[in-house]
Amino acid sequence: MQETVRLTDLAHGGGCGCKLAPSVLREIMAGMPAAAAFPNLLVGTETSDDAAVWRLNDSQALVATTDFFMPVVDDPFEFGRIAATNALSDVYAMGAKPIFALAIVGMPVGKLPVETIQAILAGGASVCAAAGVPVAGGHSIDSVEPIYGLVALGLVHPDRVLTNRTARAGDVLILTKGLGVGILSAAFKQQRLDPAGYEALIASTTQLNLVGAELPDLAGVHAVTDVTGFGLLGHTLEMCRGAGLSAEIFAEAPVLLPGVEALAQAGVRTGASGRNWASYGEAVQLPADLPDWRRDILCDPQTSGGLLIAVAQEHADALLARVRAQGGARAAVVGRFSAGPAEIRVS
Length: 347
Hints:
Layout: H1 22-29, E1 41-43, E2 52-55, E3 61-69, H2 76-92, E4 97-107, H3 114-130, E5 135-142, E6 147-156, E7 172-175, H4 181-189, H5 195-205, E8 221-226, H6 231-243, E9 245-249, H7 260-265, H8 271-280, E10 284-285, H9 292-299, E11 307-311, H10 316-325, E12 332-339, E13 344-346
Parallel strand pairs: 4-5, 9-13, 10-13
Antiparallel strand pairs: 1-2, 2-3, 3-6, 4-6, 7-11, 7-12, 8-11, 9-12
Helix pairs in contact: 2-3, 4-5, 8-9
């Protein structure tokens, strides 16, 4: 009989799927060749956008992205759902509609039962089905640690691509999901997460950002990204740098997932939140009385986080209503953009 192994115990790299620190990523990407020789490449590596975009014709552009990570939970079906939801989010963040996906599978064959691997793939396929797309193929290897994710492809009109660099002064920032996934994940690994917190973790990370495909049709939407490994502050800073604007983030405005505040106050945090702050903290002004746990939440890496949408002030209420009608009960206005240097002030 094969010994039962926790999926997260096999994720020796931490299992959070956290991105490289922004400063490290910028240094690595600095050596990438410019894409100016490819005029049909509408979005490439020059910015920190969520996906690449290639013009197919006058009415269609292909959006392509890939994302994968190690287990953040032990239930294989839920791990598959989380990873697939996370990958599809990058398509939605460009204002595109997914059309199909390819699976990326690395599994320690011999350590995990075949049934466990099948459950991971089934979880991912179930999310793709909910998004209306097939898993049309993929690639698998025998790896030391379990890895799962997707190549996700979508379509959008080339003139209506949404990026993270086109916010305007006066726009407000709407976050469509609650914050605290990283803290809940850390508590889970430490066996300090109660059933309500686990339920909130699964519900948030498996909620598709479906509204993203509608954003090009909604008035006043100027820029979009999704909040993932760099946390709310890091991804807001990317938007500031892309648009050449300053941002104000309202420290207490983001809605927190159940149990997050108590866990954060008790010192539960991820190592990535500290690395995030070390990477971009010099561009963020904090109030003198802001507690460290609140800063940790603003830097908390989100697996399968919400969309961060820059929208004209006069259209913010309508957009909030649209998001909430699609199940985004924790959507909230969390900040605003203004003219000024590319930095953030937390208030």
